[in-house]
Each structure stands twice: as C-alpha cells, then as structure tokens.
Design a protein that fits this description.
alpha/beta; Metallo-beta-lactamase, Chain A; seven-stranded mixed beta sheet; 20% strand; RibonucZ/Hydroxyglut_hydro; MBL fold metallo-hydrolase; hydrolase
Length: 401
C-alpha cells in the first residue's frame, strides 16, 4: 500500500490545481509541508549528535537511518526513506533499505570506524516487504559492496519475502468490470527476494562484469547471499488474498553469536508476505513493525520487548488531502491508506498491549509531519515515546563499563 501514498499525493495535487487563492495555498501546505527554520535545523543536528554520543556508551543500539514512509521525496524535510539498523558490538543488522539507506548508514556508523565503509560491518539485511520505499537502495549494496569491503568468506546475508504467487486483485469501482492491466514480467510477476537479487545482477551486468574483469573484484553472487524467508505451515491460512495475516506464532529467521531474529506475518494487504521482525540480544530486544495496520500478530511478536519501532500515518492528513465528498476512487485510496497502515492515534494502544518499554515512531506518513502532530501516539501508552528522526540512536540495556 505504500504506492497508494503516492497516488494520494497525485490526487491532492490534482485538486489543488483547480483551486484558487487562499484555498490553493492551504491545499499546497497539506502536501508540501512547512520547511524547518535555520534554528530548528541546528537544534535537530545537536539533538541527533547527542543521541549518538549517548548510544556509543552501549554495546547494543538502535540506529534509525531513514524515517519517512511512502515512495515520495517529501519537501520541507530531510527525512529519507525507511531503513533502520541494530548494532551489537561491531556487527550491524539492517532492516529495510529505502532510498538513502547506504549514505545514512555511513553517516551513522562511519565515526565508529574512523570513516571506513560501514557496509563491511553489516552481517545481515532483513526486508519487511518489497515495496519500493523499503528496497530502493538495495542495489547500492550490490554495486558498492565489494568496494566497501564485503568478502566471499563473510558474505552479507539478505532475508526477505518470497514470491507472492497469485496476483493481487484489481480495484474497480462498483458496476465497472476490472480493466485489463499490463503485467510486468509476466513469467514471474511477483518475484521474491532471491529472484529480485538475481534480476538486479542481470540489470547491472555491464558494471558488475567490468568490476570483476578490470579490477578483480569478487563475484557479487558470493559476497551477497539472498534467500527467501520460508513461512511455516499455518493452520487456517488459505491464500494471500483471503488470509494475509493468519494467527500464528513467531518463527526464527536467523541466529548468530550476537542476535536471534524472529519474524511474523503482518497485514499490509494487498502486499504479501509482509513481515515484522524481532531482534533478541543479550542486552535487550528490539521489534520492527514493518508496514501494517493494527496487528495482533505484531503484538504477539513484540510482547515484553524493550523497544518497538512502529510505522504511523496521520489520519488527519489523509482526511485533508482526500476531503469529503469523495469519488469512489478517492474513497478507495482513503480507505486503503488507513487500512494498510496504523493511524498515529492507535499506535499507543498497540505498544501498551505488547507491554513494551519504549515506542519509537518511524516510516512516518507524511514524511514532513511535524513532531507536535505525532504526539497523539502517546494515547493509551504509559511508556516512553520517541518521535523518530534520521540518524537518531538509542542504547539498549546497560551502559558499557
């Protein structure tokens, strides 16, 4: 449903073009946002730097790389697309890889390694789902990886959704037969993570072959190893279109000497599969919701975690860019946005039901939402609320002695 965010913006801009005067200016502000002042920018940078200094005192820490949601370059903000990382000692584990993730990772981790490439310290990447705002910078890892120190003996492991299988339904207004729409890559229209990675090798073969032959870089097939997450059999599961989020228990995806990673299906219909991930370390636990509406599976996965990183959307923003009366198409977009994401006023109860200590907002829609607009996330939650910002870091567990 992330693509529907882009469609909603298009609808809002289209409406704006037929407005005049004050009304047009008001409509524009809904999409464009209010640019931060110079003083606000300086204050933000100081605040972010302070979190890095504080988090450096911990063995395990959460690093927010990009905190905006949707396939959009949100004006009036420097938020980049969604991506996060968990650092345990000198090992990094990334969650999603949206636009700008590579650069943000370097900004967050470069100071830890005297400016050396951060990619070489990434042990694994976990993709919640395959929407563009979660994977746009994935090709960067492939193309820059061998220059950044990825090695055949310690390849970067990538875990993500497998093939959807059946195509998602086509929306059509009532009384109108679904139109015949083009199908991209009809021989495999819903590729999974392993397929996608192979297609990227094909797309960039000119560059990759040149690097291997001219500079003797290692074969990228050996430095990045992608695999589809195998979902266990689930009682009651029928199909992606009928039961996208069947009740289930978390299952292990990955484990090494630093971390154990578990996954569970969440509801981001019609995208399927869509996962939430939990990272358990000796210092504490961090859970990432991925994109989802309010999800009982997620609550089950996050039970008792130290930190829950959860996506949010502003209901007021959706109502304003798609005001009533709405056409049937506009009503569909409106409902999709609110049913495939978690309204900010509902996320606090999710955190409370899961019994987490801290709620961190990320994948924020709109990406230029102001901090004060997001405070309603505290409703129903007695723990600590953190409004996510790019490069913000949070320590987990006890400080290192």
């Amino acid at each position: 449903m992330c693509h529907v965010i882009g469609e909603a913006i298009e609808v809002a801009v289209g409406r704006r073009q037929v407005l005049t005067g004050v009304a047009a200016g008001a409509a524009a502000s809904l999409v464009l946002g209010k640019p931060a002042s110079a003083a606000e920018i300086v204050s933000q940078r100081k605040r972010i730097e302070a979190t890095k200094i504080e988090a450096a005192q911990y063995r395990t820490k959460l690093m927010l790389l990009g905190t905006a949601g949707g396939p959009a370059f949100w004006p009036g903000t420097d938020r980049r697309s969604t991506s996060s990382a968990v650092a345990v000692g000198d090992a990094i584990y990334m969650v999603d890889c949206g636009d700008g993730a590579g650069r943000r990772l370097q900004d967050a981790w470069g100071s830890e390694t005297d400016g050396a490439s951060a990619i070489k310290d990434v042990r694994a990447l976990f993709l919640t789902h395959l929407h563009s705002d979660h994977i746009a910078d994935y090709p960067t890892l492939i193309l820059y990886g061998t220059f950044a120190g990825l090695q055949v003996k310690t390849p970067l492991k990538v875990f993500g959704p497998g093939r959807r299988g059946e195509m998602e339904p086509v929306f059509a207004p009532s009384g109108v037969a679904p139109t015949s729409l083009p199908v991209i890559n009809p021989e495999n229209p819903t590729p999974g993570t392993k397929d996608m990675t192979g297609y990227l090798y094909q797309a960039f073969a000119t560059d990759l072959n040149d690097r291997v032959r001219d500079t003797h870089r290692p074969d990228p097939n050996l430095t990045i190893v992608a695999q589809d997450i195998v979902i266990p059999e689930i009682a009651g599961f029928k199909s992606p279109n009928e039961t996208p989020e069947p009740k289930m228990e978390p299952f292990k995806v990955y484990e090494d000497d630093r971390v154990r990673v578990s996954a569970i299906l969440v509801n981001h219909f019609p995208v399927w599969p869509a996962f939430a991930f939990r990272f358990d370390t000796d210092d504490g636990s961090i859970v990432f919701s991925g994109d989802t509406c309010v999800s009982e599976n997620l609550i089950r996965l996050a039970r008792g975690a130290d930190i829950l990183v959860h996506e949010v959307i502003l209901s007021a923003w959706v109502d304003k860019i798609l005001p009533a009366p709405r056409s049937e198409v506009e009503e569909s977009i409106h409902n999709h946005l609110l049913n495939a994401h978690t309204p900010v006023e509902k996320v606090g109860k999710v955190a409370a039901d899961a019994g987490v200590s801290m709620l961190v907002l990320s994948h924020i829609v709109p990406g230029n939402a102001r901090s004060e607009e997001l405070q309603t996330a505290q409703h129903g939650f007695g723990g600590k609320l953190v409004i996510g910002e790019d490069l913000l870091q949070i320590g987990v567990g006890k400080k290192r002695i």
